[in-house]
Every structure is written in C-alpha cells, then in structure tokens.
Write a structure and sequence with these properties.
Blueprint: H1 4-10, H2 15-23, H3 33-42, H4 53-56, H5 60-84, H6 88-91, E1 99-103, H7 109-121, H8 123-128, E2 131-136, H9 139-152, E3 162-167, H10 170-175, E4 185-190, H11 201-204, E5 210-216, H12 219-234, E6 238-241, E7 259-262, H13 267-276, E8 282-291, E9 301-304, E10 309-311, E11 314-320, E12 325-330, H14 340-344, E13 350-353, E14 361-362, E15 368-369
Parallel strand pairs: 1-2, 1-4, 2-3, 4-5, 12-14
Antiparallel strand pairs: 5-8, 6-8, 7-8, 9-11, 9-13, 10-11, 11-12, 13-15
Helix pairs in contact: 2-9, 3-5, 5-7
The structure holds S-adenosylmethionine (SAM).
C-alpha cells in the first residue's frame, strides 16, 4: 500500500474547506442527525443487528450530501493506491490522458481523485486536462458534483477544466458512445457496477482506451469483476494493476484479490466515525486498470497481496505473478539484504524476484526488489 503519509499528502490542503463549502456545511454540523442518519441508511452494516430500514430511510438529497462527505472522502485514496502501484501505466500512459469520464459518478468521486492526484504528483499533466464528464441517474448526486466543480474551478490550477454532468443511465450513455475510445481518454467505474451487475457484459462489447474499475473488496464483488477481467484479457486488454501478467486470473474461487485504505486519513472522518460508533479504519476494495497499451516490464514480477505475517521469526506473504498465487515463506535464517524488500514492502506493491518461487520459499541468495 502506498504509505499513509503519501496518501494523506495527496489530499490538497484545502480539501476539507472545499468540500464543506460546496456542501453548505459548517464543521459543527458534520456529526448532526442530518448527516449520521442517512449514513446509517446508506450502509446498514453500521448497525446490522438493530437495522430497521424504515427508521433509517432519509430524503435523497440528504443521503447524497452525506455520501459526498463520508464515502467520497473514504473512496478517493483508492484510486491513488492503484496509480501509485501501476508502474508503467503511471510513468508512461498517464501522460496521454486529457479527458476523463466517470460512470455512476455520484458526487464525482473519482474525477476529483484523478485531478487531485495530478495536482500533487503530475502538475504539468493537470494543465493538459481538457474535460471531465460525470454520468449518473441521480439528480441529487449530480447537483453536488456541480457545486464541487463550481468551487474547484475558482482555484487557478483547475480553472481551465471543462465539465459535463449528465443525468442518464450509464448503459444508455455508453450505447451512444463511439465503439472505440482513444488512448487519451480515461473511463472510470467506481462502485457503480454493484447496482447494475446484470449489465456488466456491456463493458466487454466496447473498446476503452483506458479503463479503471473499482468495487467494494468482498469475495462476491471480486468474483463478478474477475469475470469481466478475464473477458477483457481475451479481448487483448493489458492489465496495469494489480495483475503482473494479463493471463487468466489464478486466484482460487474461495479467495479474492483486494487491498485497503485507511478511511481516517482526514481527521474529520474520524470524528464522524466516532459519532457513528464505527471504529474500523480499513476500507477494502478490489480494482483493475486496463488499457490497450503494452505493459512491457512485467517479467518475474510479483504483486504483494497481503501484509507481512510473522510466525517464529519467519515472514509469510501472498504473492501473485498473474499466473499463480503463492503463499511465500521467508525463513528467519534466510533473511538477507537481497530480500529485505519482501518484508518491508507495502501491500499492493510490485516486486521483482530473481527466483521463480517454485518451492514457495525465498532463500538468502534470492533477490526481491521493488
Ligand atoms: C455507490 S455510488 C458510487 C459513487 C462514486 N462513483 C464513488 O465511488 O464514490 C453509485 C452511484 O452510481 C449511480 N448509478 C447506479 N446505477 C446507475 C446507472 N444505471 N446509471 C447511472 N448511474 C447509476 C448511483 O446513482 C450512485 O450515484
């Protein structure tokens, strides 16, 4: 995982001010009933035992506002983790992209995530961004996306960006698109396919220049994503995150490939979570970056899928090279300068290994480097 410090710093200093102002919220209102109740309504897991749907249903503009405040802020860093660990895509292909579309954009979560990422890490590329487009079938969400945009373009670095927010079903909007989108276009689906799982096959009928899909990190959602992934691979898409090689996904059926971010990176999120009695900081997700462009550097590379588990001085981690998933052990006696990165690397990172790991073990002489 990209370090928490890196992720924290990718939020612009003015993020909270921008968000609160766009939502018309004062700091003291963020833990009010008007915010907390719709959040409970959005996610019944918060109060799973006592959940009573009637009690927690709330008017839709209030739900949209709470979503933008809490879930948008929690979701934004997921895109940053994927980009940070996408290596060649981030280093080469990102520089082609000038237009971005998010389908099922809600408040515009991943449009802002994208722009903030460029603002912090690729300011020259931010200058080249031409248009952002958000498509959603909820007018309340789009209204919020509009307010966020209007506030954002008051800031010099973003003032050149045009926006289109379209009230539509994404399936219909896509049907009206040209069949091929260009390499200068990024298409994003963030947590929006859950609600349209019957339509996921539409994705296979199109040719996206660049496509990022991200869904909640559960087994069920991953299995649906994996189907789309395998079909896109059959259509010669390259995967830039997380799979090191674009072959059939080797993950066993009872397991799933997922990562997590800390949802408390912004201090106000901790306040809301405390008020809602929800203290787990981990927000899990599964996601893929696809393109039609080559990914040349993935020889002998392994994606680190789990944190470093320690047992009697040994370190154990799940690794995947796109063809096989292995639970790899580094014994206490085999630790060396050569394989130190295996222990230290963040989950989600890509490491290059001198061994094929046939015995699922790393030895002293094996190098494992990020
Ligand atoms: C969970 S929210 C995700 C919002 C944002 N992408 C994010 O990840 O934070 C799902 C969004 O998809 C929208 N949505 C669901 N099905 C849709 C469809 N068929 N067409 C357009 N929007 C849709 C909903 O209105 C909602 O705003």
């Amino acid at each position: 995982m990209a370090t928490e410090q890196q992720l924290k710093q990718t939020f612009p200093d003015w993020y909270e001010k921008w968000l609160f102002r766009s939502l018309g919220l004062e700091e003291e209102e963020i833990t009010s009933e008007e915010i907390l109740k719709p959040l409970l309504s959005l996610n019944n897991h918060w109060l799973q035992e006592n959940y009573n749907k009637e009690e927690y249903s709330w008017d839709s503009s209030q739900v949209a506002k709470s979503y933008a405040l809490y879930y948008m802020t929690a979701n934004i860093p997921k895109l940053w983790v994927m980009y940070n660990h996408s290596k060649q895509w981030q280093q080469t292909h990102l520089s082609n992209i000038i237009d971005i579309t998010e389908y099922g954009c809600g408040p515009g979560t991943f449009l802002w995530a994208y722009l903030f990422y460029l603002h912090k890490h690729f300011p020259e590329q931010l200058k080249k961004i031409r248009t952002i487009k958000g498509v959603d079938h909820s007018s309340e969400n789009l209204q919020i996306a509009h307010s966020l945009y209007n506030e954002l373009i008051k800031i010099d670095e973003f003032s050149h960006i045009n926006a289109v927010f379209k009230l539509a079903e994404w399936q219909e909007e896509i049907a009206n698109q040209p069949k091929i989108t260009k390499i200068n276009h990024m298409t994003i689906f963030g947590n929006s396919l859950i609600e349209s799982s019957g339509h996921m096959n539409i994705l296979e009928t199109l040719n996206f220049g660049n496509l990022l899909i991200l869904e909640p990190g559960t087994n069920k959602h991953f299995q649906r994503l994996r189907n789309v992934r395998d079909k896109l691979v059959d259509k010669n898409y390259t995967i830039h995150f997380p799979c090191p090689q674009s072959s059939k996904c080797p993950m066993p059926e009872n397991n799933w490939c997922h990562f997590n971010v800390n949802r408390f990176l912004m201090p106000f999120m901790q306040k809301i979570s405390n008020a809602a009695g929800r203290r787990n900081h981990k927000h899990h997700f599964s996601g893929f970056i696809f393109s039609k462009q080559e990914n040349q550097e993935y020889n002998q590379n392994w994606r680190i899928l789990s944190s470093a588990r320690k047992a009697k001085g040994s370190v154990i981690r799940f690794l995947c090279d796109g063809k096989s998933v292995k639970e790899v052990v580094l014994n206490k006696k085999e630790k060396s300068d050569q394989n130190r990165d295996f222990i230290k690397a963040e989950t989600g990172a890509l490491g290059q290994c001198s061994s094929k790991l046939k015995n699922k073990r790393l030895y002293k002489g094996d190098s494992f480097k990020l």
